[in-house]
Write a structure and sequence with these properties.
Number of strands: 9
Radius of gyration: 20 Å
Structural class: alpha+beta
Number of helices: 5
Mean pLDDT: 95
Pathway: Cofactor metabolism; pyridoxal 5'-phosphate salvage; pyridoxal 5'-phosphate from pyridoxine 5'-phosphate: step 1/1; Cofactor metabolism; pyridoxal 5'-phosphate salvage; pyridoxal 5'-phosphate from pyridoxamine 5'-phosphate: step 1/1
Keywords: Flavoprotein, FMN, Oxidoreductase, Pyridoxine biosynthesis
CATH class of the largest domain: Mainly Beta
Strand content: 25-35%
Low-confidence stretches: none
EC number: 1.4.3.5
Subunit structure: Homodimer.
CATH superfamily of the largest domain: Electron Transport, Fmn-binding Protein, Chain A
Number of domains: 2
Function: Catalyzes the oxidation of either pyridoxine 5'-phosphate (PNP) or pyridoxamine 5'-phosphate (PMP) into pyridoxal 5'-phosphate (PLP).
Distance between the termini: 28 Å
CATH topology of the largest domain: Pnp Oxidase, Chain A
Length: 213
């Protein structure tokens, strides 16, 4: 399979310093709202979460953004999963949104921490009942003999909690990523892509600079 000729031009838009806002979270919100409104994107909340274990081995997976504000970015998962083990060993993580139909990418780096249990409980019980049962049925990242065994566990829990509130698993909850770095990437003509980075300074301000593509 030859991929040398698999390419396309990037001419949809340009990114200029005078169009950027000083706060990268506000800049993110502007791009995110536009991505949500785009018919070209099926799931703008999906991002790649990169973690590394105690030995420095990196791991990546897709997770879904569930909230963001001035403090950072929130997603939910099982704390005893592989990603949870990585985070316990190394709280430095990276996020990557690839909105390729819009010829845009956003990279974010920072430190991660657990959200409080009340926040996790509120979100857990806002989910569809089937999703709550799925979280309770799955010991995420642990081996299992077959899908039949997993579905049997799901159906057993469905019967057990019929007409009752489903308890949130003790090992389940949210994380918040506290950003210290952003890169906004806009595809450019002649492969001269526009790249701007924000770096958090000691006084809490953000330093912005353009990078070469």
């Amino acid at each position: 399979m030859k991929l040398h000729d698999e390419r396309r031009d990037y001419e949809r838009a340009q990114l200029r310093r005078d169009t950027l806002v000083a706060d990268p979270l506000v800049q993110f919100e502007q791009w995110f709202c536009a991505a949500k409104e785009s018919a070209a994107l099926a799931d703008p909340t999906a991002f790649t979460l990169a973690t590394a274990n105690a030995q420095g081995q990196p791991h990546q997976r897709i997770v879904l953004l569930k909230d963001f504000d001035a403090e950072g970015f929130v997603f939910f998962t099982n704390y005893t999963s592989d990603k949870g083990a990585d985070i316990a060993a190394n709280p430095q993580v990276a996020m990557h949104f690839a909105w390729l139909p819009l010829e845009q990418q956003i990279r974010i780096e920072g430190r991660i921490e657990k959200v409080d249990r009340a926040t996790s409980e509120a979100y857990f019980h806002s989910r569809p009942r089937e999703s709550q049962l799925g979280a309770l049925a799955s010991a995420q990242s642990q081996p299992i003999t077959s899908r039949d065994d997993l579905e049997a566990r799901y159906h057993e829990l469905t019967e057990r909690y019929q007409g009752q509130e489903i308890p949130m698993p003790e090992s389940w909850g949210g994380y918040r990523i506290l950003p210290s770095f952003f890169e906004f990437w806009q595809g450019g003509k002649y492969r001269l892509h526009d790249r701007f980075v924000y770096r958090l300074q000691a006084d809490g301000s953000w330093h912005i600079e353009r990078l070469q593509p």
